[in-house]
Amino acid sequence: MEFFIANYAAFMFAGLICFLLLGFPVAFSLGACGLFFGLLGIELNVFPASIIAWLPQRLLGIMANDTLLAVPFFTLMGLVLERSGMAEDLLDTVGQVFGPMRGGLALAVIFVGALLAATTGVVAASVISMGLISLPIMLRYGYDRRLASGVIAASGTLAQIIPPSLVLIIMADQLGRSVGDMYKGAFVPAFMLVGMYVLYVVLLAIFKPKMVPALPVEARVFREPNGSSGYTSLLVLTVVSVLVAVFLARHMAEVHTWWQGTLVESVPTDEKIVVAMCGGVTVAWLIAFINRVTKMGLLSRLAERVTFVLIPPLLLIFLVLGTIFLGVATPTEGGAMGAMGALIMAMMRGRMSFALLKQALGSTTRLASFVMFILVGATVFSMVFQAADGHKWVEHLLDDLPGGQVGFLILVNVLIFVLAFFLDFFELSFIVVPLLAPVADKLGIDLIWFGVLLAVNMQTSFMHPPFGFALFYLRSVAPEKPYVDKVTGKVMQPVTTMEIYKGAIPFLVLQLVMVAVLIAFPGLVTGSLDKKVDVDMDAVGAQMRDSLGAPSAGDAATSENLWGNDASGSEAPAGAASEADGAAAPADPASAASAEESSAAPTPGGYGSDDPLKSLQESIKK
Questions:
Q1: Share of the chain above pLDDT 90, in %
Q2: Angle between the 145-156 and 123-140 helix axes, to the nearest 10 degrees?
Q3: What does R_g of the chain's alpha carbons equal in angstroms?
Q4: What would the pLDDT profile of 394-447 be if each residue is shown by its tens digit?
Q5: How high is the pLDDT of residue 618?
Q6: Whether the Cβ atoms of residue 482 and residue 139 lie closer than 8 Å to each other
Q7: In 156-305, where do the E strands start and end?
Q8: How far apart are the C-alpha atoms of 205 and 227, rounded to whole Å?
Q9: Comparison of pLDDT for 574 and 100, the residue scoring more
Q10: pLDDT category, 509, cuts 50, 70, 90?
Q11: Which residues pair with 87 in a beta bridge?
Q12: Which among 274, 354, 387, 504 has the fewest CB atoms less than 10 Å away?
């Protein structure tokens, strides 16, 4: 029995694994395990019975958590956009732009997947939409089945890492960090991962062109009356937009100085990117709008189509992320603006209906309830686990790993990779991350870097054969039997499950390479964060002394403090002594003696000290 009590936390964690292996839902497994071991621990005197009284307060704390409100807002935004036909328009338009080049359809899927990730944030919606729309077209024109399946599944999982990602919101909440900082940290790694996908497709187009053929001429629908493709007009419009964005980025400090009326010397990089891109696409939209209204014929059909299809979702992304990055809105407020913007876009496109709104709200409610139930169960388990000194057990388990920070990060990422076979990112975030975060913080690892690293790793949970959810989503919409293509009239062979698995492996390897790159180069994450402001505590103390009319530090040794004592603090204030007498009595004589001594003389910099600077420093340390 002594061995059981001494290793109570370890047995509790093993009990949770048993609950999960029995097939119970994760939320109920966590809650049941927490309550069972909580009551058992009270009976065995592992911890006091008052632990049960803490539970309601913890659960009410979940309800009062403003950060988690961003989850239903961003989910509603994504579902409204997805159900209003944005994915179809994007895939059709971007496919026409890149179609004439080898690998163009695969590149279109990657770019649209990134755009959907930044607007929907829901993997299932992205994978199913692209699977229904792009997969038949890619198969029709001779794309390799494995590549077509893999690129659709991998592009859909970008919703896990590209802001405004639900994973990053949950990760920020569990790590106790700002959602805005988590978004800023994920910005560069997310687009590096997109670049790696693009590079892989380009290499295939160079070395294995038969796997990624170009779109035939008869399939290119946006052509001018004279037969030209219209790419020249699109190229000119793109160059103008890019030049405007570059100009804004280079002169962002001057723009801020003009706008605010005060001198601004530097602007954060992420803010430059968001504002500059917003300015560039706005100029392109204005040119296209003027061209359509005045019928001047400045733009080709392709350029006009691309502008009106791409720019509204881009502006919505900049509205949401820009307000968060600029500090104008919190992530919750940004999510609310995004949801309202999605509803307005759906109405402007004439695709808003009561049925669509009902479906989106129903799906949002189910997902939000799913998250809330898991969080409640995880809170119950975590509270009991911490009361049983589980955090110390985890620290002792991971403290002595060889390799320091790098050894810890390698082991943790291997652990997450293995657990991702069986648990999805919500469950990993609520169960594993709270156990690992204190150890990472103790080792001096930046928790924003740690959170983004785990988010990239958790992305693999959707791509693991044979358990990846993205692979299941694609399997549900991929053809299982031979079918007749509507355009060519040819009999098309089905996509087998093994082809989907084989297609996912190269992209899974790319994701793991990205994890290794982030471990080796943490600056990719931390370099995007705002610089820490160093506070001169001496100057703060001097300002406090001036405002309070207290003597300066140099005069404090010879003058009396606010209590009328000398600077040595040898006498205790009467009020403080009576306050101490009225407090709860210590449990043992030694504690009573130490309490009596502490009430007799205030600690340097403590309550009753004559130096506000020391008081402030001590309060910060506490």
A1: 8
A2: 160
A3: 30
A4: 777 776 677 778 888 888 888 888 888 777 777 788 888 888 888 888 888 889
A5: 56
A6: no
A7: none
A8: 27
A9: 100
A10: very high
A11: none
A12: 354
Mean pLDDT computed over every residue of the chain: 78
Task: State the Cα angle at 141 between 140 and 143, rounded to 5°.
Answer: 100
Taking the C-alpha atoms of residue 551 and residue 562, their distance in angstroms, rounded to an integer, is 10
> Which residues, 6 or more positions from 491, have their beta carbon under 8 angstroms from its beta carbon?
482, 483, 484, 485
**How far, rounded to the nearest angstrom, does the alpha carbon of residue 202 sit from its chain's CA centroid?**
28
Given a contact cutoff of 8 angstroms between Cβ atoms, the answer to whether 300 and 233 are in contact is yes
Provide the b/e sequence for 6-25 (b: ≥16 CB within 10 Å). eebbeebbebbeebbeeeee
298-311 mean pLDDT = 85
3-state secondary structure (DSSP) of residue 557:
coil
CA-CA-CA-CA dihedral for 479, 480, 486, 487, to nearest 10: 60
- Looking at residue 567, its amino acid is A
Per residue in 141-182, pLDDT tens?
A: 888 889 999 999 998 888 888 887 888 888 888 888 888 888
Minimum mean pLDDT range among 202-206, 348-352, 532-536: 532-536
Cβ neighbours, 10 Å, residue 26: 21
What length does the chain have?
622
Measured between alpha carbons, how far is 81 from 356 in angstroms, rounded to an integer?
10
Instruction: State the pLDDT confidence band at 535, using cuts at 50, 70 and 90.
Output: low
In whole angstroms, give the CA distance from residue 308 to residue 76. 23
Q: Encoding tokens for residue 132?
A: 């229904």
Dist. CA 382–CA 435, nearest whole Å: 9
Contact 175, 169 (CB under 8 A): no
CA dihedral 425, 426, 431, 435 (to 10 degrees): 70
Residue-by-residue DSSP string for 65-108: -SGGGHHHHHHHHHHHHHHTTHHHHHHHHHHHHHTTSTTHHHHH
Residue type, 152: I
How many whole angstroms separate alpha carbon 561 and alpha carbon 568? 10
CB atoms within 10 A of CB 528: 22
pLDDT band at 486 (very low <50, low <70, confident <90, very high): confident
pLDDT tens for residues 108-152? 889 888 888 877 667 777 788 788 888 888 888 888 889 999 999
Cα–Cα distance, 381 to 387 (Å, whole number) = 10
Token pair of 398 as six digits: 């991971």
Q: How many CA atoms lie within 13 A of 259 on its CB side?
A: 7
Q: What is the DSSP letter of 532?
A: P
Cβ atoms 271, 252 nearer than 8 A: yes
Report cis status (omega within 30 of 0) of the bond before 189. Answer: no
pLDDT score recorded for residue 194: 92
Torsional sign, CA 254, 260, 266, 269: negative
- pLDDT above 60: residue 576: no
Report the pLDDT averaged over residues 218-243. Answer: 79
Cα 258 from Cα 252, distance rounded (Å): 10
- The residues, ordered by sequence, that sit 6+ positions from 452 with a Cβ below 8 Å of its Cβ are 161, 168, 171, 182, 185, 186, 189, 518, 525
Cβ atoms of 573 and 607 within 8 Å: the answer is no
pLDDT higher at 34 or 618 = 34
Q: What is the DSSP string of 111-174?
A: HHHHHHHHHT--HHHHHHHHHHHHHHHHHHTT--HHHHHHHHHHHHGGGGTSSS-HHHHHHHHH
